[in-house]
Amino acid sequence: MQLTIVIPTYNEAENLPGLVAALFSLPFDNLRILVVDDNSPDGTAKVVEDISKSNPGRMTLLKRPGKMGLGSAYISGFKQALRQGADAVCQMDADFSHPPEKIEELVTVLENYDLALGSRYISGGSLDHNWPLWRRNLSGFGNFYARTILRLPVKDVTGGFRVWRRKTLLNMPLERVRSNGYAFQVEMLYLAHCLGFTFKEIPFYFAERNWGKSKMSFSIQMEAVVRVWELLVDYKDLKSLT
After folding, report:
1. Which of these, 150, 197, 152, 147, lies nearest to 171 by C-alpha position?
2. Res 133: pLDDT
């Protein structure tokens, strides 16, 4: 099985070498890494190119002209991964918030489900112990808000640590996905749910990044608040089929 890990980046030069080393140490015979970089000024693309020289055929860089958003980065990465023959596609952050050692367990889920979800909100999962109470509450409320409005049978609907079956992504109308911030995670899950795909959550500990800055902003948060309601309209035709 070819597993491709798609990692969107913007100023992740400090994190990538360690993350790539951890990923290539996983027990997969055919693991590839696809980095989608939005013209990072810190030289992230150069770091990827240098690592690629030592791992020919195993690491690919998709360079974009500027910051174009998380959603479009993942859509571009998913499409390229599928063109390159991926049987399973993993999506994860570059900052070690998502533990590489959990990927093997997520991939195993695909034996019986269409999508594997890393979850911070089921038994065994948790948020960074050093997060302040207000941040924990904000994250928890965001999940409750989206889950309740969209009636999703999932505890962690905003998480970005997931593994998709090839056929699942091929059968999703990715051209309809419009969310470009973290609402992208909610939209993709809701779309999969409307199409009748099955998923299972696997618990993990979400750690705060050690290097670099979070990409979360007020505008991204507001997009998520509004976009959840828009999804009910955007996918009304698909929801009526389930």
Report:
1. 197
2. 81
Q: In whole angstroms, what is the distance from residue 9 CA to residue 51 CA?
A: 15
Number of structural domains (the chain) is: 1
Residue 72: CATH number of its domain: 3.90.550.10
* Sequence-separated (6 or more) residues with CB below 8 Å from residue 201: 117, 118, 119, 122, 125, 154, 155, 156
Stretch (H or E) spanning 171:
none
Structure tokens at 174: 């990715």
Task: State the pLDDT at residue 214.
Answer: 52
How many other CB atoms are there within 10 angstroms of residue 123's CB atom? 9
**Residues pairing with 164 in the sheet:** 89, 115
| Residues of the domain holding 88 | 3-239
pTM reported for the whole predicted model:
0.92
pLDDT given for residue 132 in this prediction:
81
Alpha-carbon gap, residue 20 to 25, rounded angstroms: 9
Q: Using CA atoms, how far apart are residues 5 and 194, in angstroms rounded to an integer?
A: 25
Torsion angles phi and psi, residue 40, rounded to 5: -60, 130
**Element (DSSP H or E) covering residue 61:** strand 59-63
Residue 210 above 70 pLDDT?
A: no
106-116 pLDDT, tens digit per residue, is 999 999 999 99
Q: Which residue has the tokens 């997009």?
A: 223
